[in-house]
Amino acid sequence: MDQDFRRSMGWLHTWAGVVLGCFLFAIFWMGTLSVFDSEIDQWMKPATRIAPAQQTLPLETFRPFLEEAAAHKAAFWNVSFPNDRQSVAEVRYRIGRKSISHDIDPHTGQVLPEAGTLGASGFIFPFHYTLELRFMGLGEWLVGLSSMAMLALCVTGVIIHRKLFADFFTFRPDKKARRVLLDVHNISGVLGLPFCLVITFSGLAILGVTYFPSGVNALYDNPRSYFNEVNSLGFLAGKPGKPDNTKSALNDMEATARQLWGGTQPGLVLVARPGAANARVAFFRESEQQVVMDRAIVAFDAVTGKIVSQSSTVRPIIRVQHFLSGLHFVHFHHWLLRWLYFVLGLGGCTLIATGFLFWLDSRRKKQGATFGFRLVEGLSAGAVTGIILATLAFFVANRLLPPGARCWGLDRSALEVWSFYAVWLVAFVHGWVWPRKVWGVQSAAISLLAVLAVVLNWVTTGDHLARTLLHRWLWPVGGMDMVLLLGAGLALLAAVRLSRKARQQSGAALPVSVRKAA
């Protein structure tokens, strides 16, 4: 009975990984990069590489942007202030379906040149939980299904490995490739097991309303009330009124909020329904020193300047939601833990990739010519090395495209995104057309593109490593370059070893007489 149970768990572990591994790798890869989305944004937006200002700009500095948003009847307007992860202020508002944002120089209050890129926060982070499949929320449903598969993989992995902790301390690089792959798979699985469980479960909890809306519908007359409570946006209640030209002093409101918080400055200011008679101005206190995502809020009537709402104690279930969200999004600013998240995320990617490679290597002799095997081989190559190549192409395009570039009706940011998809598609096709050498060739291409991205950053901005490491505000740029160079070295090492293995297999496949003659 025990043997049959373990066999069934092994079957579930294998096929859950094979069927949904492509989505899982993309989710983990983009999620890992999103840990440093602000730092990647700084690399992709050279104009934002500015030394931090000693003093915060007065809030009235941003009044022209607020008036512009009000003139266009924007639904909201907000400004986020500089912090230890970004030196510039950012103004955002939405007109219809168009989102408008401006980066603001923290010293002068002037608008910085348009970056022409979505960056990591505008493309990589949304890709992590939507897969950019927005039609009927298909991407979020695939992410949810893949997350459930990941939980199943974690549980079945523990069941089928009797000597779990012994496997963690077992690594035999001198053995055959299949044994090495299994050892790396086991080590990354055991080391990252708690992280994978927590990060996967918290992700499911965050998107839980998408999958089980009946719970919200049973407790709330309007689902919007639930979202307002979760995001502490209760002050938004009320229908839009008639426009009113009365202008309350933003600086006075900010001073009141600071006084209530004991001098702590706000991290975000949001104006709901700017220009309307029932407009609201809300100040969100920074909460970077805690895991829970429930920043204190003080909201004012935009016309009279009177306080209309303050943060109140939330229900325990909402508090749990805030805790899981903060844990998943790395809401707290702790650099050691942020790097730990990044390394463990890469460990999850390694776990998925080695699972694919082990499955392929163990079945190549018997099933190598079958359609199913060829399909999985092409999908796995495109999903693993292919998406890494596509991401690097996204970075290279960012440094190659000139400001204001347009082609086929697409602006610069869209061209960057399409370069990602074009290279990703080529990687999939390459996996099906040339399967035996795809891993080595794409690993070599990853090494080349990573180095190219570093060189292009140097050539186009002048920010080489010797400069970025000497100035603290440029450390994110230097860190990005160093990670790219480290990745290039690892990819080159993998390409060399795979090439050597391919030559050995080709030699072993030759007749004995030919090998002796050689």
TrEMBL record:
<protein>
    <submittedName>
        <fullName>PepSY domain-containing protein</fullName>
    </submittedName>
</protein>
<feature type="transmembrane region" description="Helical">
    <location>
        <begin position="141"/>
        <end position="160"/>
    </location>
</feature>
<feature type="transmembrane region" description="Helical">
    <location>
        <begin position="441"/>
        <end position="461"/>
    </location>
</feature>
<dbReference type="Pfam" id="PF03929">
    <property type="entry name" value="PepSY_TM"/>
</dbReference>
<keyword id="KW-0812">Transmembrane</keyword>
<keyword id="KW-0472">Membrane</keyword>
<feature type="transmembrane region" description="Helical">
    <location>
        <begin position="339"/>
        <end position="360"/>
    </location>
</feature>
<feature type="transmembrane region" description="Helical">
    <location>
        <begin position="417"/>
        <end position="434"/>
    </location>
</feature>
<feature type="transmembrane region" description="Helical">
    <location>
        <begin position="473"/>
        <end position="496"/>
    </location>
</feature>
<feature type="transmembrane region" description="Helical">
    <location>
        <begin position="12"/>
        <end position="36"/>
    </location>
</feature>
<feature type="transmembrane region" description="Helical">
    <location>
        <begin position="372"/>
        <end position="397"/>
    </location>
</feature>
<feature type="transmembrane region" description="Helical">
    <location>
        <begin position="180"/>
        <end position="212"/>
    </location>
</feature>
<keyword id="KW-1133">Transmembrane helix</keyword>
<dbReference type="InterPro" id="IPR005625">
    <property type="entry name" value="PepSY-ass_TM"/>
</dbReference>
